[in-house]
What does this fold into?
Amino acid sequence: MQGTVLEVQLDRNTVLLLDETGTFAVQGVNNIPKGKPCLSQGKYVMVMGVIQAISPEPVIRAVKMADLSELAAIHRRMWRLEVEDLQQVLA
It folds into this structure.
C-alpha cells in the first residue's frame, strides 16, 4: 500500500494513512527497522505488510515502510497503474 501520513500515534504503535480510496491504519510501526524517518505527517510512504482487517477501514500490520516523498508525484501516478493492473490480473 502507499499513502500520505495523516496522523502518527506512536503510543498506539499506529499510523493513519490516506490514499485515493480513503484512509487505512498501519500497525506495528514502532517495530520497523529504519521506519522512523517515515513517521512524519505529510510524508508519502510505501507499506509492506499483512492485512489484519478490511472493515470498517483496512488495517495492515507493517513489515517494512519506505519514504517515497522525494518523487511522490511519480509514485502516486505509478501506484494507481499498479493497482489497476493487479485488478485486471485478478479479474
